[in-house]
Task: structure prediction
Amino acid sequence: MDLLENLESLQFEYGIQEEDRSWLYLQGRSRGLMIKACAHATFFCKLLYNLRESLREKHTSRGLLTGLLDDTSDDDDELKVGIIGGGHLGKQLARVLLQLVPIPAENLRISTRRPEALDEFQKLGIQCFYRNPVLATWANVIFLCCLPSQLPTICLEIQTCLEKGCIVYSFVAAVPIARLKLLLNHTNILRPQYQCVEDFVNIWGANKEITAALQDPATLQATCPYSPAGGIILNIKWLEGVFYAILNFCTAKNMPHLQALQRLNELLLSVHSEDCEEDGASCPKFQSSDFVSQIYTLMLPQKRTFPWFDLTAVQLKETPFSQKLSTSTALQDHLTSVYCDSFGVSLSEERQPGVSTGSPSQQEKRPQESGFVPSTTAVP
Result:
């Protein structure tokens, strides 16, 4: 029992002058951003993990049926995640990925300037070192959790080590994705962007571990990609990038485009919303024309893979999928359902996806902020 847990003199707010208390919202906003960032990274890794596992299972079952099981290692089929940066974000992300994806400890590595400070992770079996190029050569997903000032040096170290299919996921908010593309000479990049609205509602709590917070239905639903709850909004172009990243993975596996669409439907439309008919006939289904132009679709042979997509362009420009993702409420409901289901939480009947649940008394006034305005440049 922690006897000091509720001691007022040890609370963060104690000793802050009254005229400075209007800035306390920054503490809640920082925690909200951390929870959302970890949640979205976990969701993405979970999608890749499940996709790889399903491919491995089908490969194994096919081998059993034919009696031709090869002796090659399954290492290429495993999700290998690297984290560059062992600060607060890097450590929180590692904990969440370990517990909620869950990624085995041997498939998670951290490169940081102070590996000796990560003793708790090394005891779990996670390799912690300071060799960024080694990490980049090994991993197929790399999270950048470093400071903006460190990024140019890190990019210079790893750019020649990145495989084409390696996904670089950047949390460095100060560096735009176009700049990242130049620094890394790489196009398979995801970068979530968050907008903090004026009427901030602190529903993020203060004492729970992030892994525990993401098991709370109210907190988890506030992190849903379409939810404005909590005053922090995700730029939905990130979700668009996730779709195209999955298609790139299928292309790297030489998967015909029709089979890739089937995988995408199984992965992201497998959990049905309440508005669906029992037989699922009303559920949306992905078509080739949702992701490439109509002309390209007509010329695409059935056994041909999708083209390789530049994820930086996907997140900066309009694509064939942009309108469907932003206007189809049925698709949005399905994605919200599968998002919550991936964390083991079901949407309640009384609660609609994307509705803020914070009470007016929780709102705290603060200086007005400028929001992010997504680019609407058309794809050639």
Summary: DSSP finds 14 helices and twelve strands in the chain. The first helix runs from residue 25 to 66. Confidence is low (pLDDT under 50) at residues 349-380. The longest strand covers residues 81-84.
